[in-house]
Design goal:
By secondary structure, this protein is an alpha/beta fold. The protein is 28% helix and 19% strand. The protein is globular and about 60 Å long.
């Protein structure tokens, strides 16, 4: 896969039906022309992603989003766009016929957002098309926050637009406006409390997402490392030199551990912890001396809800 910073080349590849990996403020995305079903099909092929899992369309302006939503005049859409876009909020709402079925997994809704990353925005606006883009990783695996994470997992990508490390580090918040009451489908950087300042919203029932997810990232197992992952509140014993331990912050117990240690935040700051979460998991996965990974729970407030959502799903396939 070619890696570089040539914006014109990346935009041309998208227009011509190719795949471009690019940075957003959350994680790296794997992009294709969202109005070209053949191009979008390549995303599913390269990621080994099941066809029942819909994609997010990334756009460069509210006007471009209005071309995709069936009811762009919905006051809730307008209020959320005005408050949170560009930014890590994805809105799910009824779609217009212009949106290909492959993007939405055949559902009558579409997921849309405007990213708050200068490279992502320039790419979308230069290409002149909505960009369908899930995270640039193999399906169900760790999300990429650095360019080499993309290179390690994927083949068949035409261009990797290098933007260094992503800032937020966890995927966007997803809200559904398909019912009378808005529903939070996936927690992210933008919190439930922040959204409630704008419109009424409730948490979704997680069990509803398994057969036909309304949006990405809703399956019980997701974001997983290949190595066994165990979640803990406090370590009861030293897991040994073959283990990697990820703490939220500096913990006095770590001084006597033989394990490989990473702190997500020196001060215990949850925003900083979110930014380092997937990077830390990648580091442990790529360390040949680490055979199993332990990760500390965080307080479920604010973005801590999103962090624990990712941790639980990452550990689910390992039964921990």
């Amino acid at each position: 896969m070619e890696r570089g910073t040539d914006m014109q080349k990346a935009a041309a590849i998208l227009r011509e039906g190719g795949l471009v990996a690019f940075p957003t403020e959350t994680v790296y995305g794997l992009g294709a022309n969202g109005l070209n079903p053949v191009a979008v099909a390549r995303i599913f092929e390269v990621k080994r992603r099941p066809a029942f899992d819909p994609l997010i369309l990334h756009v460069g302006s509210p006007e471009q989003a209005a071309d995709l939503f069936l009811y762009p005049e919905d006051n809730r859409i307008k209020a959320l766009m005005e408050r949170f876009w560009p930014g890590p909020l994805t809105i799910v709402a009824p779609r217009k016929p212009i949106v290909p079925d492959i993007v939405t997994s055949g559902m009558p809704t579409v997921a849309v957002r405007i990213p708050a990353h200068p490279i992502a925005l320039e790419l979308i606006r230069t290409a002149g098309v909505p960009v369908a883009a899930p995270s640039a990783n193999l399906f169900g695996r760790l999300s990429p926050t650095l360019p080499h994470h993309v290179q390690k997992q994927l083949t068949g990508v035409d261009y990797l637009l290098d933007g260094g490390k992503t800032q937020i580090g966890v995927e966007s918040t997803i809200i559904s406006l398909t019912g009378e009451t808005a529903t939070l489908l996936r927690p992210g950087f933008i919190t439930l409390e922040q959204i409630r300042e704008i419109i009424p919203v409730e948490m979704a029932n997680a069990s509803d997402a398994e057969d036909q997810p309304l949006a990405p990232g809703l399956l019980k197992s997701h974001y997983s490392p290949e190595k066994p992952l165990t979640v803990f509140e406090s370590l009861q014993k030293d897991p040994g030199s073959h283990a990697g331990v990820i703490f939220l912050a500096h913990d006095p117990v770590r001084q006597n551990l033989k394990a490989h240690i990473i702190n997500l935040s020196a001060s215990g700051d949850l925003i900083e912890a979110a930014a380092h979460l997937f990077t830390a998991l990648h580091e442990m996965e790529n360390n040949p001396e680490v055979k199993e990974i332990y990760i500390q729970k965080v307080e479920e407030r604010g973005i801590g809800i999103a962090i624990m959502d990712r941790i639980r799903k990452a550990a689910y396939r390992h039964g921990n």
